[in-house]
Amino acid sequence: MSKALRLGTRRSRLAMAQSGQVADAVSQVTGRPVELVEITTYGDVSREQLAQIGGTGVFVTALREALAKGEVDFAVHSLKDLPTAQPEDLVLAAVPVREDPRDVIVARDALKFTDLPRGARIGTGSPRRMAQLNAYARSHGLDIETVPIRGNVDTRIRYVHDGELDAVVLAAAGLSRMGRLDEVTDFLSIDTVLPAPGQGALAIECAAVNADLVAALGELDDPFTRVAVTAERSLLAALEAGCSAPVGALADLLADGQIVREMRLRGVVGTTDGTRTVQLSTTGPVPETHDRATALGRELAAEMLAQGAAGLMGERAQ
């Protein structure tokens, strides 16, 4: 029996669900059993708002330390939690096919976002979601109050069931991986709320020196997902914004029948009260290389900065 590969994962139910799915896929491509090694990260134990503790890397650092020490062979992250700077000793071996990148609403009485009552209280820990929901509400004559919350999926949904909040905003991909899409009362259109850079995608990371494992994990990589998230994360990096900044970005592929012709990258940044936003998009050939995808993100970020994006982000990440 070949030795089991050790997969480092956060302990949350969502992390365990998505790591379990990756473990099955890795077992199939390597022919080796995979065991989950549960690791507690700072973001899991801290009760502070993510925007306060910096957001960047709080769910990732402990997993990366375990990789560096050889305590695990590879790790699975939600890509949107991954800092944009990649450590030299670690490699992003695979970005599997992305799930639905949209945000969703779980509301009382099965309400849609636009049907929420005046003064509805909507919970989210994300400045990005607050900025865009408030901007949409302002432009469509809706009266909402965004309320900062923390906690796992169960905790957030409980706020609605207990009547403390009228609705909460979550990522479609997380609920899908947990088998809980039936609790969604509304899928938020990309035109209403642009997701976080990398939302819906997973990152499989391992030590650069482990060339055989890097190659094996690479079989799970989806090239289209990778170029899309590379462009999105390049935009985020060029704005010098961390993953808790009010930045939304999505690169999607524009197909003509079965043939993918172009990629469109959209970006938004806004003040959390929704009073000011900068939203731009660019469309061009699907990037053939990592460098071209990175350049696409940088170019759109430069246009956004030229329109005043930096002043809308509050403290810029260092």
* Helix and strand sequence: EHEHHHEEEEHEHEHEEHHEEEH
> What is the typical, i.e. mean, pLDDT?
89
Number of strands: 13
> Any idea what the shape is?
globular
Q: List segments where confidence is low: pLDDT < 50 over at least 5 consecutive residues.
A: 49-55
User: β content, as a range?
Assistant: 15-25%
What summary fits the major beta sheet? 5 strands, mixed
Number of helices: 10
- Helicity level: 25-40%
The termini sit apart by: 47 Å
Roughly how many Å is the radius of gyration? Answer: 19 Å
Q: Structural class, from helix and strand content?
A: alpha/beta
How are strands sequenced across the largest beta sheet?
Answer: 2-1-3-10-4
Q: What would your notes on this structure say?
A:
The chain has 318 residues and is α/β, with parallel strands linked by helices. 32% of the residues lie in helices and 24% in strands. The chain is built from ten helices and 13 strands. The chain has helices at 13-30, 42-45, 50-53, 61-68, 127-139, 153-161, 172-177, 211-217, 223-238, 290-306; strands spanning 5-9, 34-38, 74-78, 90-94, 103-107, 120-123, 144-147, 167-171, 186-187, 202-207, 247-256, 259-270, 277-285. The strands form three sheets. The protein has a five-stranded mixed β-sheet with strand order 2-1-3-10-4, sandwiched between helices. A five-stranded mixed β-sheet has the order 7-6-8-5-9, sandwiched between helices. The chain has a three-stranded antiparallel β-sheet with strand order 11-12-13. The longest helix is centred in the N-terminal third of the chain and has 18 residues, at 13-30. The radius of gyration is 19 Å and the shape is globular.
